[in-house]
């Protein structure tokens, strides 16, 4: 940590966060316990429907994520037709019309 430097600030062209994968739920939960053991603040375990995430910041404010591989995008869609239609996690389904209206076609 460099207390003589100002904390990192987001800006144009900046990175929002850095994500790392953990291959299974056991290792994911172990990271939660590891951070708790060392007294580091985290987001707590977050269910993103397609994967699980754990967020934390390093002392200069950079945001990191540890995310599971699964359950994956096949949880609610056949993998053979993945990407052919807009599939939303249940928590966003009520906003489907608004979300889809804001999408631009891929050329």
Structure write-up:
This protein is α+β, with helices and mostly antiparallel strands and 107 residues long. It contains two helices and four strands. A four-stranded mixed β-sheet has the order 1-4-3-2, with helices on one face. A hairpin with a 5-residue loop joins strand 3 and strand 4. The protein is extended and about 50 Å long. The N and C termini lie far apart (45 Å). The mean pLDDT is 90.
Distance between the termini: 45 Å
Order of strands across the main sheet: 1-4-3-2
Query: What is the string of helix and strand elements?
Result: EHEEEH
- The low-confidence parts are none
Strand content range: 15-25%
In round numbers, the mean pLDDT is: 90
Could you tell me the number of beta strands? 4
Q: What shape does the CA trace take? A: extended
Structural class: alpha+beta
Q: Number of helix segments?
A: 2
Biggest sheet descriptor: 4 strands, mixed
Rounded Rg: 18 Å
Helix content: 10-25%
